[in-house]
């Protein structure tokens, strides 16, 4: 982990000096806004929680066959709905808070600071409200609640497919796939694995339940990770325009940092798939998985931070 942190710090220093060369004064790259990066990070985390809750419900719990009543009590999907609510709140704060802070810092009215495509923002907020209602209804009616939450989130995250440029469309699919992959892993770790470990169930039964959850999650993770790779490469090419931009622009260097961190996530995911997953089912294996999943999520968090910085930088010309 110290190596990763050192890598990020070194890359950040490189980014600071990239546009202006060695003689450029220390400081953030041109057009970089720490405030924008913060709200982008808030938005990404919101998508991870909200979409991760949906992925956990339909991509993990629902796929486990023959789950006993005791197991369903331990791995309660309605607990994931609480994380979904947290995600919706974070998304609302990001979408409405960013223009509010922008209005204050730039001495504008709130209406002027709002995005130009106001109809798209209104649609996204309406769908997020529908998703919020769905998550709140999960305890009352599971089927209706999860259905409304799923519809609202899918329309909200994929809304750019109906408007905007190609890069925006690809990015929407990229966010959905990344949130399905790492967001579901996050909810699986917080609700599934943690809940099983803290239960009073016999050790070997805990290990088997964790194995069932992970085996159900694996196909979804592989599919989502593949889509992340495809859309990520496409987005990078659309923004870079030329290969030399990778080492001659702030955007390109930030992208390299992100890719290195993503590589770390992929390596840890492969390790979990090839080494940890086959050992599941033995007593004590759930603790090994918890540690490896935590490390994978730690790299995922660094990827989110790097991406939040990346999207605030101007694309190479």
Give an overview of the whole structure.
- With 317 residues, this protein is mainly α.
- Helix content is 78%, strand content 0%.
- It contains twelve helices and no strands.
- Helix 2 (34-61) packs across helix 7 (142-157) and helix 6 runs antiparallel to helix 7.
- The protein starts with a helix and ends in a 7-residue tail after the last helix.
Keywords:
317 residues; mainly alpha; 78% helix
**Order of H and E elements:** HHHHHHHHHHHH
Indicate the radius of gyration in whole angstroms: 21 Å
User: Roughly what percent helix?
Assistant: over 70%
What structural class should be given to the helix and strand makeup? Answer: mainly alpha
Q: Could you tell me how far the N terminus lies from the C terminus, measured between alpha carbons in angstroms?
A: 35 Å
Shape: globular
Average of the residue pLDDT scores: 81
Give the number of helices.
12
Low-confidence stretches: 1-26
Largest sheet: none
Number of beta-strand segments: 0
Share of β-strand residues: under 5%
């Amino acid at each position: 982990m110290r190596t990763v942190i050192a890598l990020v710090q070194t890359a950040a220093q490189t980014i600071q000096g990239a546009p202006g060369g060695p003689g450029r004064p220390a400081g953030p790259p041109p057009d970089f806004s720490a405030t924008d990066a913060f709200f982008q990070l808030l938005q990404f985390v919101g998508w991870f929680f909200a979409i991760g809750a949906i992925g956990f419900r339909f991509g993990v719990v629902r796929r486990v066959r023959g789950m006993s009543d005791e197991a369903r009590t331990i791995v309660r999907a309605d607990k994931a709905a609480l994380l979904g609510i947290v995600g919706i709140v974070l998304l609302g704060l990001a979408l409405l808070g960013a223009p509010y802070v922008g209005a204050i810092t730039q001495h504008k009215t709130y209406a002027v600071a709002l995005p130009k495509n106001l109809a798209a923002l209104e649609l996204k907020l309406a769908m997020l409200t529908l998703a919020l209602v769905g998550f709140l209804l999960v305890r009352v009616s599971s089927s209706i609640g999860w259905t409304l939450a799923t519809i609202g989130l899918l329309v909200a995250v994929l809304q750019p497919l109906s408007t905007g440029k190609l890069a925006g469309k690809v990015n929407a699919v990229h966010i959905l796939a990344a949130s399905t992959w790492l967001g579901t892993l996050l909810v699986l770790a917080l609700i599934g694995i943690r809940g099983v470990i803290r239960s009073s169930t016999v050790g070997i039964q805990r290990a088997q339940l964790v194995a069932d959850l992970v085996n159900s999650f694996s196909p979804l993770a592989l599919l989502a990770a593949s889509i992340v790779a495809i859309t990520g490469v496409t987005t990078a090419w659309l923004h870079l325009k030329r290969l030399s931009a990778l080492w001659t622009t702030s955007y390109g260097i930030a992208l390299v940092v992100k890719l290195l961190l993503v590589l770390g996530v992929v390596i840890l995911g492969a390790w979990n798939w090839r080494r940890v997953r086959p050992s599941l089912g033995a007593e004590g294996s759930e603790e090994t998985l918890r540690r490896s999943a935590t490390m994978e999520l730690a790299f995922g968090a660094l990827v989110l931070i790097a991406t939040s910085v990346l999207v605030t930088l101007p694309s190479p010309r």
